[in-house]
Description:
Blueprint: E1 5-7, H1 11-16, H2 20-34, E2 42-44, E3 52-59, E4 62-69, E5 76-84, H3 91-111
Parallel strand pairs: 1-5
Antiparallel strand pairs: 2-3, 3-4, 4-5
Amino acid sequence: MDKPIDWRGTAFDDLKAFPDDARKQAGRELRLVQRGFMPTDWKPFSQIGPGGREVRIACADGWFRVMYVAKFEEAVYVLHCFQKRGRKTNKGDIEIAATRYRAVIKERSNRT
Length: 112
């Protein structure tokens, strides 16, 4: 059974704004994650929090990233989706994902 996706902040709208090729590729990659598989092109991204990862998408329109955490049993939390502008990930993008990650942790701790 697929894990649901829990979109954080503007992540869903940001993904919808990707060019068609990038958006479709992101959808395929997230479907793999929902089913418990690893995306085809990803890397760990612990700067946002333990278990943080990013899907890397390269297409004719540029580089795109989807930051998420899937280590929790209830959902895949998509934290941030953005177009990467340079070799290093922008600090602002890291902070957005990290802030949303902390919010997930806080919500989960309030449930118990």
